[in-house]
Known about the structure:
The protein has helices at residues 3-22, 28-52, 57-83, 89-115.
Amino acid sequence: MTKEExxxxxxxxxxxxxxxxxxxxxxxxxxxxxxxxxxxSTSVAANYxxxxxxxxxxxxxxxxxxxxxxxxESLFWLQFILDEGIIPEIKIKDLLQEAxxxxxxxxxxxxxASQKN
Length: 117
């Protein structure tokens, strides 16, 4: 997968998470989850773009680590929403899968970059 395809994929992931976040209930928990999911998912896309501009391998690996953390955090919030029964699994299943796949892709990329001389 090219970096342009990943830019598009991470941005689409962020958009989908934002739409889900806006569908959460307007109560204390819903508002908290909304903010957390919006912050972490949009950070995946924004930080991946920064990763693409890294000027050294060390910087690339460091920035990619941030992307992994934010992607995993997004996955956590999606799972939490599901665990709380706020959104039915059928409506969140694809986003859970995408967060899992993106996390795996970025972990693999970091591992490859860290191993290269």
